[in-house]
């Protein structure tokens, strides 16, 4: 079997796994008020895509560094990295404009809220300890920057846990290649260019190198992820993900 076929099969298997999680959550989302539901859908779809990218990235980091990385745990952490946004006002998350400084501070609180929420939610789901630990680290620290100018703790370099350093890159990639209420989508190559330019400032340069080494696999995943129009943020009805 050719490399592309293998990648396609692996992609399908991982996509099926994360969409199973999505389906399990759809009933819960339907209980929410419309705007809160729309924000939750955007947060969750972003998490699912990040989970797909993280799967490929985690395997590459494990293979390049020899570190004992449990790929599934990192995929799980990526899916839930923005769970704290469920506690942020939906009006701010869906605002089709630049936020004020005060509004940004409120949105940025999703990392501290996320740690608390992830701990509660994942304990209820009986997530095993190693996966829970990585998920909490990622939820709390994915907006730290390599140069120390991130939030909420301004950690510098390797003081930021590996999983959170990886998540920062994956998060940035998905935000760039998908449309948001305040911006349109940009191309895969544009996203890779920005990530490369931020190596050593926003991101761990050695991780950027590994990320860019699998960029074709990531492009395949991002182009294969097709969210049907009727499931986009503009439509507040939650349907079963396919
Ligand atoms: Fe975030
Ligand atoms: Fe995110």
UniProtKB/TrEMBL annotation:
Pfam family, one: HD_5
Domain of life: Bacteria
One Gene Ontology molecular-function label: phosphoric diester hydrolase activity
Record-linked CDD domains: HDc
Alphabetic keyword roster: Hydrolase
InterPro entries: Cyclic_di-GMP/3'3'-cGAMP_PDE, HD/PDEase_dom, HD_GYP_dom
Annotated ranges, domain HD-GYP: 21-227
PANTHER family xref list: CYCLIC DI-GMP PHOSPHODIESTERASE TM_0186, CYCLIC DI-GMP PHOSPHODIESTERASE TM_0186-RELATED
Protein known as: Metal dependent phosphohydrolase
